[in-house]
């Protein structure tokens, strides 16, 4: 059964262009398409503590399920080249639902994971420690970071090392160990940083960042990624069912909405996402909509979900 559900999850059940035509011809949905100008009594700006409060309410870790589809969508996360170590940075790790399948994939994968909530990082550590995947002390390194405001810590890829020629373009650096969630590190010998990361995963994270801050986040990701390596992306797509359910009063920007709990949700078109990543210096490898139709078992209502799938590479030079 599990395999069947995963296969359905990955399929394209309908064409996005057909959904667009349906949405854009529906007068009741027209407010989603119009240019945005904030009315006098519009919703308040998002609170910086909204996600921290969200994770406190869902502290058991049961709200988000392990993303078992991840390695099918991004097989690069399970390297097959001997015993080489891949450093992965998960941005906005939440309770570890993305980290866990990456750690399961191969014992030589090392994951660095940041989030703005200390509470959810503790939840992630507990969830992964009890997941029966073997020793994780040197493989999972969570750290606290408000990544929409602050740059990534210097120990990921210091400025001096970023300027140096790439000494090992086909191999991977071994991991360093953050001492605590403030971002300090324990590095071996004279090593000043871990030399950058081989993969960055942005999985349902960027949509929660205010649109005006997205270029900063993407540029920071670019700065800590090693040349030739990949950023793997998955997030909400334009005309997803969730977007169409938002009432007009929760619209706080163009394709940007404020949830009732104070968290943000943005819905990406391919052209907007492409512009964001190319302007940061990335090269587009894959970018497409993933359209999945499911049925609510209780109500029998058809649900049309739209996600954006992307792979972006940092150039070698």
From TrEMBL:
Residues 30-50 are annotated as: Disordered. One of its GO terms (biological process) is methylation. This is tRNA N(3)-methylcytidine methyltransferase. InterPro entries: METTL2/6/8-like, SAM-dependent_MTases_sf. Signal peptide: none annotated. Residues 37-48 have a biased composition (Pro residues). Pfam families: Methyltransf_23.
């Amino acid at each position: 059964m599990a395999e069947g559900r995963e296969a359905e999850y990955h399929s394209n059940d309908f064409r996005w262009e057909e959904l667009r035509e349906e949405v854009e011809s529906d007068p009741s949905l027209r407010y989603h398409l119009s240019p945005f100008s904030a009315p006098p009594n519009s919703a308040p700006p998002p609170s910086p503590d909204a996600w921290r409060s969200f994770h406190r309410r869902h502290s058991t870790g049961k709200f988000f399920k392990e993303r078992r589809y991840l390695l099918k969508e991004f097989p690069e996360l399970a390297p097959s080249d001997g015993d080489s170590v891949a450093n992965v940075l998960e941005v906005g790790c939440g309770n570890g639902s993305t980290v866990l399948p990456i750690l399961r994939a191969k014992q030589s994968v090392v994951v660095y994971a940041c989030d703005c909530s200390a509470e959810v990082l503790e939840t992630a550590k507990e969830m992964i420690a009890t997941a029966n995947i073997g020793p994780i002390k040197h493989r999972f390194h969570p750290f606290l970071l408000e990544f929409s405001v602050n740059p990534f810590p210097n120990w990921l890829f210091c400025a001096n090392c970023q300027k140096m020629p790439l000494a090992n373009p086909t191999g991977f650096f071994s991991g360093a160990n953050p001492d605590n969630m403030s971002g300090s590190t324990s590095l071996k010998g004279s090593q000043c940083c871990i030399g950058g990361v081989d993969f960055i995963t942005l999985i349902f994270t960027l949509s929660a960042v205010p649109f005006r801050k997205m270029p900063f986040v993407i540029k920071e990701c670019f700065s800590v990624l090693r040349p030739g390596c990949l950023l793997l992306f998955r997030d909400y797509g334009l005309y997803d069912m969730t977007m169409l359910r938002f009432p007009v009063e929760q619209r706080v920007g163009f394709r940007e909405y404020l949830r009732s709990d104070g968290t943000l949700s943005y819905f990406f078109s391919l052209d907007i996402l492409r512009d964001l990543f190319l302007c940061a210096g990335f090269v587009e490898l894959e970018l497409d909509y993933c359209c999945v139709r499911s049925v609510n078992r209780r109500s029998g209502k058809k649900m049309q979900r739209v996600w954006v799938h992307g792979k972006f590479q940092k150039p070698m030079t």
